[in-house]
Fold:
Amino acid sequence: MGDRRRNSPTPHASLARFSAGRAATLLERLPSAPGFWRSPVRGVGFTAVLGLVLLAGITLLFVTGLLSYAAYNPDLNPVNDKTPDKGLLGFYLFAWPTGPHWLYRLTQGLHVTVGIVLVPVLLAKLWSVVPKLFALPPVRSVGHALERISLLLLVGGALFEFLTGLLNIQLEYLFPGSFYPLHFYGAWVFFAAFLAHAGLRVPQAVRVLRSGGLSGKVRDDPLESPDPAGPTISRRGALAMVGAGSLLLLVTSAGRSFDGPARLLALLTPHGAAEPGSGPNGFQINKTAAAVGITTTETGEGWWLTVSGPAGNLRFTRKQLLAMDQYSAALPIACVEGWSTSDQWWRGVRLSDLAALAGYPDRPPGVLVESVQRSGPFRRAALRDNQVRDPRSLLALQVNGEDLSPDHGYPARIIVPAAPGVLNTKWVGRLTFGEL
Structure:
C-alpha cells in the first residue's frame, strides 16, 4: 500500500496538469494561435491583388485630395485657410486656375467617388492580413518593431481617413472648423506610412502574382492557415465579391455628379435624389437660406452691395446692378462632399467690371467677398486676381433666365469657373478689391 500511495498522483499534480491543459486549450482559441484563422481564402496572392488595387486607388485619392485642397487657395487669405499650421506640408500649393471650368468638379468628384468605391477593397485587405496583427511575439527585433509601428500607422490612418471622409460626405459640416485640418494632417501621416509599406511589399506582391500566387500554392505562405476550414468560395470568387461591392457603391454614389436618372440612383450620398423643385432654380443646393438665418430683412428692398477699393465705398442696389452690362456664363456648382450640378446658365455683372468701378480699371486684383448670412461656415471668402479677371466670373443676379431663388443666393451671388462651391458665395453684401 505504501508503494501504491507513492506512485499515485497527488491532488496538486493533477490540478497542475488540468490547469496546463486548460491553458493550452485557451491559447489555441486566442486570435494569436495559428489555427484560429482558418479561412482557406487567405493567402499572399489574394492579399497582393487587393494591395495593388489600393496602391493605384489611394495614390489617386491622395493626389486629387491635394489638388482639391489647393482649389481653396488656402495660402491666399486667412479666411480661406482652414489649416493655418500646415507649414511645410503646404509646399505644393499653387494659384488655382479657372480653366477648364469643370476642373474642381473633376478632382473632387474623383476624390470622393474613388474613396467610396475603395471601401470594400480596404476592408477585404484588412481582413486578409488580420492574423498578422495578432501574431506573437509582437516584436522580434528593432526592424520588426519599426515595421509594426508603420503597420499601425497604416491601418489606423486608413480607417481614420476613410471614416472622417465618409462622415463628412453623409453629414455635411459634421466637423465645423476641424474637419479640414484633421483630414489634411491625417492624409499626410497615412500616406507616409502607405509609401513605406508599399516600398516593402509591392515588389513581393508582383513576384507572387507573376508566379501564379492567386490560384496556385506559394511556398511557406505566411497568410495561409495551417489548418484551413473546408472551402466555401474560391479566392477568385472572393475577389469577384469585393469587386461587386465596389461596383454597387459606384452605382449608388457616382450619380450625384450628374443629372437625370443617374442622380436618382445615388442613394448613398447627399444630393443623390431628384432636383429640389422644378424650373430654372430647380437644381441642387448646398445650404438653404433658412439654414443660415437669411430672411427678407437682409435680402429685401433694403439690400445693397458695397464695393470697396481705391475709389472708396460704392453702393449699388439690385436695380442698379441689373442696369449695368450683363454677361452670361455656363458653369457648374461643385462641392467638397463630391456632388455637383451640370452647367447652369448664370447672368450678371463681371467681377472685373466691378473691380474697374472700385478703382482698378486695368489689371484687377483679388477680392474679399462677404455674405450677409449670420451663421454657418464660409461667410467670407477670398478670390485670386486670375479668378477676378476671368470673363466668366460673375456677380450673378439670375440663373437659367430667371432671378435667383433665395436658396441660390438672391439677390446676388458669386460664380467662378473651377472654384469649390463654398467660394461661390451666396447672398453677397460686400466686395473689397485690393491686397488680401
The chain is about 45% helix and 10% strand.
